[in-house]
Structures are given as C-alpha cells and as structure tokens.
Amino acid sequence: MNYNNLNSEASYIKLDDFALCNIKVDSGWVGIHPKIENYGLYYYLYDGSPKVGIAFETTLISLTKGALTSTKSHLDKSVIIEASDSCDMFIFNTLDKTQDWTGSLVTSTFTCDNANSYLICIDGAPKVNSTTMQKFDYSKLTSGKEYSVTLNGGVLGLFTKV
C-alpha cells in the first residue's frame, strides 16, 4: 500500500496460508493498493467511514463498521482508499490470488466442517474452548470438532480455504 505523508500505521503479518493487515490512518489520508499488491479478500472496519473505490471505475466498496465485507471480486484491480475521518480497518489477504476463501464472523458455538479452516481474533478478547484470544491470534481448526465461543464483546472471523 502506498501512503501519503499523513499519519498512518500499518501492521502486516504473513502466515503459511494467508496474511493479516491492520491499517490505522488519520483524516485526509489517501492510499493506493496497486493491483499487483492487492491480495485483500475481506475487510473489517473497526472505526471511521472511509471511501473505498476501484481505480478508473465508478465502483465504490461500502464498508460498514463491525461487518466483514468481501472484496474478492476486486482482486485484479487497484484499490483507492480515502479517509474523511480517522479510520481503522483489518484486511484478510490470500497469498495466492487463484486460491478462494470463504469468510464469516462467528457469533456462537459451532462445529468445524472443513480442515482448511482458521479462526482469527479480529478484535477484543473472546474465549474459545477456555482459551482467551487476543487481536490477531489465530488457530487452525480441526474438522468435526466443536468450538465453544464466548465473545465477551470481541470479534472472531472464520476463514476457510476452498
């Protein structure tokens, strides 16, 4: 992501199958994510109301605070982000643009149905099977296993490699 000279903070964690990115920016910040670097499949907006668009198109991606938004259809396009206020967002990235992933927010106890699934703490300190998770903690799940979830105001994402 290319940044202008306003305050911005980005953390990027590359793992075996995916990467996580957290971007925090000040009001007035503009960033360009060139298509060659755009691996973002899902965005989660913690705070703010950024405008997210596709370069040279009239397409706008609507991000809603507290919701997971799929951006899979825009992988081979350059993304432009403009912050009219301070913004904080999470991006789930694939490492291979030909690899599809599903993503959803977890709200209650569930049984994993795919061995290629990961549970990621997006925010807060939710408890999963008696283990308290912190932001960006993740766990590869076991197919057929039940996962007891207590959100405690936190946010968990379930991402599965298809």
Note the topology.
Blueprint: E1 2-3, E2 8-14, E3 18-25, E4 30-33, E5 40-47, E6 51-54, E7 60-61, E8 68-70, E9 79-82, E10 87-94, E11 101-106, E12 110-111, E13 117-123, E14 127-128, E15 131-132, E16 138-140, E17 146-147, E18 149-150, E19 155-161
Antiparallel strand pairs: 1-4, 2-3, 3-10, 4-9, 5-8, 5-10, 6-7, 6-9, 11-19, 12-17, 13-16, 13-19, 14-15, 14-18
Give the CATH topology of the largest domain.
Answer: Jelly Rolls
Number of H/I helices:
0
* Percentage of residues in DSSP E strands: over 45%
Order of helices and strands: EEEEEEEEEEEEEEEEEEE
Could you describe the 3D structure shown?
The protein is an all-beta fold and 162 residues long. It folds into two domains: 89 residues, Sandwich (Jelly Rolls), CATH 2.60.120.10; 61 residues, Jelly Rolls, CATH 2.60.120.10. Helices cover 0% and strands 51% of the residues. It has no helices and 19 strands. Strands 1-4-9-6-7 form a five-stranded antiparallel sheet, with no helix packed on it. Strands 2-3-10-5-8 form a five-stranded antiparallel sheet, with no helix packed on it. A hairpin with a 2-residue loop joins strand 14 and strand 15. The radius of gyration is 16 Å and the shape is globular. The N terminus is likely disordered.
List keywords for this structure.
162 residues; 5-stranded antiparallel beta sheet; mainly beta; 2 domains; 51% strand; 0% helix; Jelly Rolls; single chain
Brief overview, please?
The chain has no helices and 19 strands.
